[in-house]
Design brief:
homodimer; 365 residues; alpha+beta; Creatine Amidinohydrolase, Chain A, domain 1; six-stranded mixed β-sheet; 10 helices; 20 strands
């Protein structure tokens, strides 16, 4: 049922753009519309064409038998029946004169190839399906809520088991293993960063996570779970023993900033103002601005629309799910980030889906 | 040192194409040329421009401090200093008149955006860096050899621990955990497929791997390890107890086909003939052709050039590393694939880098 109404939304977008049909290439968008699931995010394993009458799924012999969706018209890619030929067939059959394509996904080479080999006028579209995906339906909100619940539980258990001498990489691996043992998966490679490593907003724990937990260490953990294709995202700070006064003060300022930012989601019209005011609040307290956005949408992808950033044009709308994650980074000293996954409810009010306590998490070792 | 000679190869390609410079966007190609490593394969975290004089690495505030390579000229992306502006600066400074771009990687939208905003003639290139990457240097061969050794060891230990009642997904998770515990990682999600599941060449173990190991089961395991950014790929078949005569016969035929295919790498000029003759051999024995290619190059990516396929134009050359993986798939019954990672040595002869025994692996439970 969900898939049908998503297709209706695509068709209504096509009508607005005066297009007869569109070619969908981005694999998350294909999954969203058809539930097709290949093996790889890196390779073209399927294509989807939405016309006024039909939804075509185009894939090859490796996957064709696994497609189980009676709403779809299947076309098989073979050496003799390559994509331009299949597209030309659909175009002819359904009298398509203008075919939209996803300009943010199709490569220049693919575009040139189709242009040369398929007899149809190709029209650039932007955010055609990604735009629709920004507003989550009930099924999606439920999946993300559950991904948040799983992550909260994991974070609680993993935090409780941290010990002196463990490296950042080992803690990250513990998170991964917990999720996989519980039928979930990583939404992204966790960032586990101790002391000055936490001052690097995108610290690469896999590559550089050799620092060990010591007495007095503050630990940033930024992680997310995958549940039924949907993701969660949370950052919490842990401390071994008593933190310094400088750290505690910064933590309180950031916590206040993050809670104000969440509240602003229910008050402002545009995400850019949430970003702007959160930065302003921290700057007024004497902290430097952070070199990343205040937040981002998430769902099938860890970073998707809307953007919670200074350059965002997006308006805050019911059904959006975004992270709110300001940070304070003092190079060579420490970094702090506090992050929640937040849904905008039907009345336009923000509600945190990640429910881990937001006070500094004490580690007893 | 290696990075320098790679850049020389790029510059000599540019000269052939009559280009002053090129913009590299594909993240594996950026890593290959600069050793830059971001966090995500899905997002544009850096760009590289190779000119006659310099190698520019362009990235943002999240990563700029982590770049540690004195051969590189760094440019920082900021809100005020977006990519077209940086590109325009480089173009002007270095008097670039024609800038190549990677047509197989740049999206149509990015292309249009640069075309509109950077004052330079953009020229489509294909396989500019990927083509160079096909021939592995000694450092790369060593990394892949080690990835093969790790995978062989993992396969041996994991096979030895398989027990009745384990699901396909659990075995896949055991492989993953073994690799991660040993400082390695997955090259791709392992395929573990029991009995008729193995007849699906790209069986999705994560999604559908609920079948349990039982007496008489045959188990296909297709997996690879990641070592220092480089990958290995192997497929072996395991059997619990005594296989059927039909299976044993098919296994012998396939093993013979796979060994002939490897041998042909040392005899033929073109990969397409290796593919053709391997299929012909199996068809003559009465088995159906397989719905995938006979093999593929691998290295930083699990699928890269050259192609070992009917439609391949690639010639067999020293330094190439490819998989050889013919299969027999009998729908509803069983599937068999035997796969090795093979290097073409300096004398043009094939040498297996995966060294796991190729006889059916007996599982005692």
């Amino acid at each position: 049922m969900a898939a049908i109404s998503r297709i209706d939304l695509v068709r209504s977008e096509l009508e607005k753009l005066d297009l007869d049909a569109c070619l969908i290439s981005q694999h998350h968008n294909i999954f969203y519309l058809t539930a097709f699931q290949g093996l790889s995010e890196q390779e073209r394993e399927a294509w989807c064409v939405v016309t006024k009458e039909k939804i075509y799924l185009i894939t090859d012999g490796r996957y064709i038998d696994s497609v189980d969706n009676s709403n779809l018209t299947i076309r098989e890619l073979t050496a003799e029946n390559a994509l331009p030929k299949i597209l030309s067939g659909i175009i002819k059959e359904e009298k398509v004169t203008s075919l939209g394509f996803e300009a943010e996904d199709l490569t220049y080479h693919e575009y040139s190839y189709f242009k040369k080999n398929a007899a149809v006028s190709l029209k650039e579209t932007r955010r055609l399906v990604s735009g629709i995906r920004e507003k989550k339906d009930d099924e999606e909100i439920a999946a993300i809520t559950e991904a948040c619940r799983i992550m909260d539980q994991c974070l609680k258990e993993v935090s409780g088991a941290i010990s002196l001498g463990q490296t950042e990489r080992e803690i990250a691996l513990t998170i991964e293993w917990w999720l996989k043992q519980h039928g979930s998966d990583l939404a992204f490679d966790p960032i586990v960063a101790i002391n000055e490593h936490a001052a690097i907003p995108h610290f690469n724990t896999k590559a550089d996570g050799d620092t060990k937990v010591t007495a007095g260490a503050v630990i940033l953990i930024d992680c997310g779970a995958l549940n039924n294709h949907y993701m969660s995202d949370i950052t919490r700070m842990l401390v071994v023993g008593k933190p310094t006064a400088e750290f505690s003060q910064a933590y309180q300022a950031l916590l206040e900033a993050q809670e104000i930012a969440i509240q602003l989601l229910g008050e402002k019209q545009h995400y850019k103002n949430v970003d702007l005011m959160t930065r302003a609040f921290l700057e007024k307290k004497g902290y430097p601005s952070y070199a990343h956005s205040t937040g981002h949408g998430l769902g099938l992808e860890i970073h998707e629309g809307p953007k919670v950033a200074l350059n965002s044009k997006d308006t805050i709308q019911p059904g959006h799910i975004v992270t709110i994650e300001p940070g304070i980074y003092l190079k060579g000293k420490f970094g702090i980030r506090i992050e929640d996954t937040v849904v905008i409810d039907e009345t336009g009010q923000p509600r945190c889906l990640t429910l881990s306590p937001k006070a500094l998490i004490p580690i007893s070792v």
